[in-house]
Amino acid sequence: MLQVLLVDDEPFILQGLAMLIDWEKEGFTLAGTAANGLEAIAFLEKTQVDLIIADIKMPAMTGIELLEKIRAEHISDAYFIILSGYSDFEYARKAIQYSCMDYILKPVRQAELLSVLNKVKADSTKSLQRREEVALQEKAYFARNLIALICGKFDQLNLEHVKSKMRTEGGIRYIDIEIDDRPEDESGKLLLKSEEEKRQQQRLLYQYCLDFLKQDGWHCIFDVSSNEKDYDIGLVYCDYMAQEAGMDEQGYLDYFLQSIQQRMKQPVVMFVGNRVDDISLLSESYRTANIARSFQNFHVEGMTQRISWYEEQECAEERTLLCKSSLDELIKAVEQNEKERIPELVDSLYEEINRNSLDAKLVSMNIDYLLFQLVHAAQAQDINVNQEEILEFINRNAFDSGTMRGSRMHLKRFAEEYADYLSQLRGKNIRGSVMSDVEQYIREHYAQNLTLKDLGLKYYINSAYLGQLFRKTYGVSFKDYLNNYRIEMAAALLLHTDLKNYEIMEKVGYHDLDYFINKFIALKGCTPARFRKKSRESNT
């Protein structure tokens, strides 16, 4: 409902205007009345309205003076309608110079009032759409700049734009926030959710984070990960947030997590990267948050941490009761791709764990040490290997088989697959022939639900290594390559067909209209509707 303020020094006119039409039926609510301009100013200083209807001639302050004052002092940007007699026509002409939308001659007729109100509604709808489009573009442009910092590929312009939108005082951490998608029912069976359900929950999580952060909402970013199976929210935490809330860092994040969990009504987890001193170093904190995330996936049942700190994982090697000898033997076998030894070495590790009666927390500590060393092993094979791709491999291959987290079977399978991955990093360059086939397949099936895992199975290549080849060949991740190709196909459909946005969205492989529009803006710099309009205007 649009809020209306009526201003006239004659009470019977105010009463007549209020009774002349059914305001609510027309989409308006009478917010208040005033007898002159001064009363109107006092009202506007306390209450925002969308439309002001004021008489020209009033004591104390005329309608023209009221209009001039609220425009000059930016008291209100509401639509302004003047009530005037025939003899006041020149005054009405002057009012229009001060952004008065229209005038109505007295006595006011119902049809004329309705006509002006319809004009206000139509313009208000267009203005709202324009503001929403500008806000959407601004948010998408900011996200592009922030992601450049997160990925460590940025310049001074990226840095300055991010600093113009968010406060970056004190120490900074990147924090990955996700819904814990691993809860089980009473029988112990994993509860699987559809991709659409996960996306809807991700949107809810994002909105609840924005609600919690309020004016610091720019610190929150939607869908950061390049892994198509992740539904994450990124948070750039700065020390001032906890300080202004009167809490320490741990207390603030506990409160944050508790607040959004209560609204989500399901478990939410945070993975906290290490502290950096400047926003320009954000990529280092992002990298370590991903490591904390990958290690959390290996924690045994009942040991899920709601907030996982990278620093806690990093110091695992220094803790007591580390089965270092057994772990190092297993790591060596994985590095050398000794598949026949891996099962027995995993058995030896678990036997040592059982002999020492290690509890769940200490078992997780040993697994953390193992993962640290395996990440380093991949980097030793190829100094150019992207660490995020390694972590994506760990995430994907940790759970796809459905084996219980923390079990011997789970660890054996993972170690064998990781041994294959390291072997392929050492192997010959197969980029040319395989990537040509993969590229052609994507062009023919881009609208389908394509994943690196599916392509890896089709072309007999480890999915993580295929991800590496994508970055080396095209300079972008598989997810970005697929998204860019889909958007180019959408742009072609916008230019050569009259299909609606939702129809184009479905044809190129998207299932969420808001997500499609955001991705289109990020690549093309404008909404699909504006892209089509600009292209057609340029051809006329």
Description:
By secondary structure, this protein is an alpha/beta fold. The protein folds into four domains: 2-127, Rossmann fold; 166-182 and 195-314, 2-Layer Sandwich (Alpha-Beta Plaits), CATH 3.30.70; 324-426; 432-538, Arc Repressor Mutant, subunit A, CATH 1.10.10.60. Helices cover 58% and strands 10% of the residues. The protein contains 23 helices and ten strands. It has helices at residues 11-20, 37-44, 63-72, 89-97, 110-151, 156-165, 195-213, 239-244, 249-264, 282-296, 310-314, 324-335, 342-355, 360-381, 387-399, 408-426, 431-445, 452-458, 463-474, 478-496, 501-507, 513-524, 528-538, and strands spanning 2-7, 28-34, 51-55, 79-84, 102-105, 172-179, 220-222, 233-238, 268-272, 307-309. The strands form two sheets. It has a five-stranded parallel β-sheet with strand order 2-1-3-4-5, sandwiched between helices. A five-stranded mixed β-sheet has the order 7-8-6-9-10, sandwiched between helices. Helix 10 links the parallel strand 9 (268-272) and strand 10 (307-309). Helix 10 runs parallel beside helix 15. Keywords: Cytoplasm, DNA-binding, Phosphoprotein, Transcription, Transcription regulation, Two-component regulatory system.
